[in-house]
Design goal:
mainly alpha; Growth Hormone, Chain: A; globular; about 400 residues; 15 helices
């Protein structure tokens, strides 16, 4: 809703002076977010391992994400609000990505090893299902309603801006089950049960340094993280600019972009759940490989699409392979990571997803500006996906 389908398109169309400038600014903000996540995810994971707790970190970061999202309501369709919009988006994105580190580490604690792929896939699938409902509510209750509900002023784009309020409320409500119903397996603090916060931070950073120094560049974990670094760049760029590309290249109005987002979430959710079974059957590495091949093939079709109809076809097919790439990657990391420093490993996992993730959006944005063409920018995504696929073949997963 925020980073891809609605607010991103609203920013490039309604807030920025023109779509090319908006694409460039949005790409720069995404790159800054990725760089911050890359620098801080692994240290946060290491500190969490030392503290023995994950849910307090998850709760605090969830709250920051919600509050920053609420702040986007005040971004009016005027270029005077560019800075406010980008700062809040960066804060929300960074907090969300940090929260994901602690969220992902809970997977091996609640999922039996033989069903980890299915449960990871179902988790992603349910997330996409929630996205479908949220997008549908936005479309029919807010964006397309005539007259707009709740006295919203269409002249200042309030029906579109109100979608951020829906997102914040949605995030808050559906974060409650993990805090109220999912137990956390408490682990002893390596620094001692009465260790101070400062001691925990020092211990976490020291342990991270020891881990980094001991990393073997030929180990399966490191090879996987390097491969993921590249294909995660491609995925992030695809998510970030999908709605912007649809709006700028094919002239889709907000209502059609939301419909496209609904359809994409449906196919992505089905793909994530379906591939979850494939993950447990053939292994996560092979599942990721198949998904990347699908993304590359249909990414080329999206790039070459002559009109919106063919872009819809390519987009629906792309969705089938988006969810599986994410879900199977999480499963493979959970299988490769040592249990005693799993949060730290998932911090490195987040690092691998973000260490060069500023490069994908940045290259997309600058390529778009250089050639004055969003299609030229979209072509860079295929390069990142191909590089990740080639490097993944060198990973031994068993």
């Amino acid at each position: 809703m925020i980073s891809t389908f609605v607010f991103a398109a609203y920013f490039t169309r309604g807030v920025a002076p023109d779509e090319t400038t908006g694409t460039l600014l949005w790409g720069n903000a995404t790159a800054i977010s990725a760089l911050l996540v890359a620098l801080m995810s692994a240290p946060l994971g290491a500190i969490a391992d030392q503290s023995g707790r994950r849910k307090p970190w998850l709760a605090a970061l969830t709250a920051i994400t919600i509050l920053a999202t609420l702040g986007l309501w005040g971004v009016l369709p005027d270029d005077a609000f560019i800075t406010r919009a980008l700062v809040l988006v960066v804060i929300a994105t960074v907090a969300f990505e940090f929260a994901s580190v602690f969220y992902n580490t809970m997977l091996p604690e609640i999922a039996p090893p033989k069903a980890m792929g299915r449960i990871s896939g179902i988790g992603w699938g349910l997330g996409y299902a929630g996205g479908v409902v949220c997008l549908a509510v936005s479309l029919f209750v807010l964006v397309q309603a005539d007259p707009p509900p709740f006295g919203l002023d269409a002249e200042t784009q309030e029906p579109v801006r109100a979608t951020v309020l829906l997102v914040a409320a949605w995030f808050a409500v559906f974060s409650l089950p993990i805090f109220l119903m999912v137990p956390e397996r408490l682990r002893p603090r390596p620094a001692g049960p009465k260790a101070s916060t400062a001691a925990i931070v020092r211990g976490g950073l020291a342990e991270l340094w020891r881990t980094l120094r001991a990393l073997d560049l030929k180990s399966p974990v490191v090879r996987f993280l390097i491969a993921r670094m590249f294909y995660a760049d491609g995925l992030t760029t695809l998510f970030t600019f999908g709605g912007i590309y649809a709006a700028g290249t094919f002239g889709m109005p907000f209502a059609e972009i939301i419909l496209f987002g609904i359809a994409l979430n449906v196919t992505a959710g089905l793909g994530a759940v379906g591939f979850g079974w494939i993950d447990d059957w053939v292994g996560p590495k092979r599942a990721i490989t198949w998904a990347l091949l699908g993304l590359i093939g249909f990414g080329v079709l999206a790039l070459a699409a002559p009109n919106a109809f063919w872009f819809w076809i390519a987009g629906m097919a792309l969705g089938i392979f988006m969810g599986p790439t994410q879900a199977a990657s999480r499963t493979l990391m959970a299988r490769l990571a040592p249990p005693e420093n799993r949060a730290e490993m998932f911090g490195l996992y987040a690092l691998s997803g973000k260490a060069t993730n500023f490069a994908g959006p940045l290259i997309f944005a600058w390529t778009t500006a250089l050639f004055d063409s969003q299609r030229a920018g979209m072509a860079t995504i295929i390069v990142f996906l191909l590089a990740g696929l080639v490097l993944l073949r060198r990973v031994k997963d068993g």
